[in-house]
């Protein structure tokens, strides 16, 4: 009886087995950041609910602060010589927003405009209930869960946008904002108006909030665009807008980056133009919202903004926001706005 023969090796099977073993070893070594614990992952639907609640909690602190002495202090002056104030309401809103998020998601990276005062008990904030239904936002419960790596997520918060106007009683401009960025890309944006009260939110590639208006595109608006610029940082932006977009351009001033972006989203204005330096916590929420409704925020050069935690918090060189015809308006602007005051 002959048991002799030739052993044939399936090269593809060996390669596949070896590759699988390599992946297992690589993941176990931690080099791929493979999640070993549940807390290494975060559900974006839960984070959307959390950021909505955080922004609204901050809004309540803003309202409460308005009922007593504001204790106004100054962070200094802007490049245009305008006072940059901060109040107790800014700090109270920061505490509510920052620590409610951190206490709910311990490993979450949160970047805030403000910082807590030492010994204030600021960190004693309740955890957020990410499972409960949010009034007026039942649509969220019908969205699919989406898990991402916690390490890739950065939340940017602005506890009180338009502080100067808040101290002047111009409450229509005041908002609290939260934004979720993944690997530097804004995905979820929340803008809350404490004095209305009203909250807008959007989850890019998913849904905007039900109260987000549908705005029709009007080609003729390019002939007489409505432009909104900063009330506290106007510089020479009005002149630039009219020179770039034509003599029929109308320019209005308003406060708060969140307010101005939402006015473009809502169709009140065609363009939001900003020429001086601006911080990312002012922009991130609006950036996520405008892109969800198929608009765009970019630098004057057309570059996207990186919202990674380790990136520079300041954006220089100008900002352009449109709901329609972004490339058209960008092509009309000068490439450099640095130094415009």
TrEMBL record:
Pathway: Polyol metabolism; myo-inositol biosynthesis; myo-inositol from D-glucose 6-phosphate: step 2/2. Keywords: Hydrolase, Magnesium, Membrane, Metal-binding, Transmembrane, Transmembrane helix. It holds the Pfam family Inositol_P. Its main location: membrane. It is an enzyme of class 3 (hydrolase). It catalyses: a myo-inositol phosphate + H2O = myo-inositol + phosphate. It is a single-pass membrane protein. Belongs to the inositol monophosphatase superfamily. This is inositol-phosphate phosphatase. It comes from Spodoptera frugiperda (Fall armyworm).
């Amino acid at each position: 009886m002959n048991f002799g023969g030739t052993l044939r090796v399936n090269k593809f099977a060996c390669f596949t087995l070896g590759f699988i073993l390599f992946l297992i070893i690589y993941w176990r070594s931690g080099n791929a950041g493979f999640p070993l614990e549940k807390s290494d992952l975060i559900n974006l639907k839960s984070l959307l609910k959390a950021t909505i609640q955080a922004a609204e909690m901050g809004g309540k602190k803003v309202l409460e602060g308005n009922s007593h002495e504001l204790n106004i202090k100054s962070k200094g002056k802007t490049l245009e010589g305008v006072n940059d104030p901060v109040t107790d309401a800014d700090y109270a809103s920061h505490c509510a927003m920052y620590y409610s998020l951190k206490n709910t998601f311990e490993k979450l990276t949160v970047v805030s405009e403000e910082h807590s005062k030492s010994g204030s008990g600021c960190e004693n904030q309740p955890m957020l209930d990410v499972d409960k239904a949010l009034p007026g936002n039942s649509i969220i419960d019908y969205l699919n869960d989406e898990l991402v790596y916690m390490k890739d997520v950065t939340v940017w918060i602005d506890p009180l946008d338009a502080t100067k106007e808040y101290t002047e009683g111009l409450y229509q401009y005041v908002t609290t904002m939260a934004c979720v960025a993944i690997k530097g890309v804004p995905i979820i944006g929340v803008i809350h108006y404490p004095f209305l009260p009203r909250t807008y939110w959007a989850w890019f590639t998913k849904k905007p909030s039900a109260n987000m208006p549908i705005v029709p595109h009007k080609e003729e608006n390019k002939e007489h665009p409505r432009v909104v610029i900063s009330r506290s940082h106007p510089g020479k932006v009005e002149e630039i807008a009219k020179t770039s977009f034509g003599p029929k351009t109308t320019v209005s001033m308003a406060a708060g980056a969140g307010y101005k972006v939402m006015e473009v989203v809502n169709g009140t204005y065609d363009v939001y133009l900003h020429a001086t330096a601006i911080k990312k916590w002012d922009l991130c929420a609006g950036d996520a919202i405008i892109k969800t409704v198929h608009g765009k925020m970019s630098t004057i050069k057309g570059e996207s903004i990186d919202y990674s935690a380790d990136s520079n918090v300041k954006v220089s060189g100008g900002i352009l926001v449109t709901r329609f015809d972004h490339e058209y308006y960008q092509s009309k602007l000068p490439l450099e706005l640095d130094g415009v005051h």
